[in-house]
Amino acid sequence: MKLVLATSNKGKVREIKALCEDFEIIPYSELIDEFEIVEDGDDFKENALIKARAVFKALNDENVIVLADDSGISVDILDGKPGIYSARYAGAGATDKDNLHKLIDAIKEKNVKSSSAHYTAAIAIVTKESQYSVHGWMHGEVITKALGDKGFGYDPMFIPLGYDKTLGQLDDETKKRLSHRSKALNLAKIILQTL
């Protein structure tokens, strides 16, 4: 089954391909020119559906299945921020490192060295006839320094519950097992197998 991903984020594409080995996965940017999608939903689910619908419409091919992910980190001491703004926390055009360091600074401003936090992943699936969404979560804590160089985004500052290393330090197999995206994709695969 061919799945078109409504993302050009190389980290997400790599992770989704590794988690969905049974499917042929193509980033939409290999089929059409990249375009800006305004993610103005109130939560991860709405933004994932917005992305999937936009790419499905732009492809103009009723035979494709489009999968979109919207995910981010929510930090308790920051009242759930950055949440749905995780990818653009440090502003438009910010890099992963810019976002990471802004989050570290925001936590330090609270005069703490760590806080409980969680990742959320919402996966949307859009076909000609239907739309679905599923969620996955990973709980743990964030720390005010970046450790490790694996993964992407906020991984170097996030320690999963029950571990003493950041996602930036953990091996790929462990991360795959714990990942919020992995949990959501496992649910999405059940839906995909029925299509």
Count of alpha/pi helices = 5
SS-based class = alpha/beta
Described by the principal axes of the CA atoms, the overall outline is globular
Number of strands: 7
Question: Helix and strand string, N-terminal first?
Answer: EHEHEEHEEEHH
Please report the distance between the alpha carbons of the first and last residues: 10 Å
The major sheet is characterized as:
7 strands, mixed
- What percent of residues are in strands? 25-35%
Question: Average pLDDT across residues?
Answer: 93
As an assembly, this protein is single chain
Stretches where pLDDT falls below 50 for ≥5 residues? none
Integer-rounded radius of gyration: 17 Å
Q: What is the helical fraction, as a range of percent?
A: 25-40%
